[in-house]
Design a protein that fits this description.
Elements lengths: L12 H18 L13 H8 L9 H11 L1
């Protein structure tokens, strides 16, 4: 087993979420080659779940789509 520790300073919450999502993409890309990567960070599961969901995360997205349809 190999371990890497990253200490990240000066990063906004949005950048941190993107950073973790990119690490998760790398994790998925290496899995077919037999590499099992474990990521540990505060709320990482929640960030990955929200960042990889297929649904539109905007709270009013259904209302916007309905208004566009009714105007057409």
């Amino acid at each position: 087993m190999k371990t890497v520790t990253l200490n990240v300073n000066g990063i906004s919450q949005g950048q941190w979420s993107t950073f973790l999502l990119e690490l998760n993409l790398m994790k998925k890309a290496w899995k077919p080659y037999g590499v099992d990567v474990k990521l540990k960070a505060h709320s990482i599961n929640k960030i990955i779940e929200k960042g990889t969901s297929v649904n539109d995360p905007r709270p009013n997205s259904k209302r916007v789509q309905q208004n566009k349809r009714s105007k057409a």
